[in-house]
Request: fold
Amino acid sequence: MTTTITLPQHPFGTEITTADIIAQMQAATGWEDRYRNVIQLGKKLPQLDDSYKQDQLKISGCESQVWLHHQIINDRYYFIADSDARIVRGLITLVLTAYHGKTAAEINRFDIDTYFESLGLIAHLSPSRGNGLKAIVEQIKQLAQQ
Reply:
């Protein structure tokens, strides 16, 4: 028996698009400004209730704790995620904006590397943060291939 959970709503991938985030980041005047933008985006991500923070939904490979839930409705994938670190919450929003509400084909077709490059962030992240971000992306891609 499969239980369907109604995931908390967030604006990423619907009201806030990848084009919005790219424009915002490209208008930033330096790394500190981009960092502030990421933190502000993270504040728009709803905190998950503790009942959603289950060990089997933790993303391995992240320095911080990260939980990722998904739901498939009419062949579209809907995600909610959270972290115990502010900057990671912001990075999660960048990923959710790219993948939330998309079909498996759209998820697999999206060029996440070019998207991240256009944001001008990856070079400024610590190796562990960069690896954690990649782990979140890989988990979403694996879900879309099941």
The first strand starts at residue 66 and ends at 73. The longest helix spans residues 127-145. The radius of gyration is 14 Å.
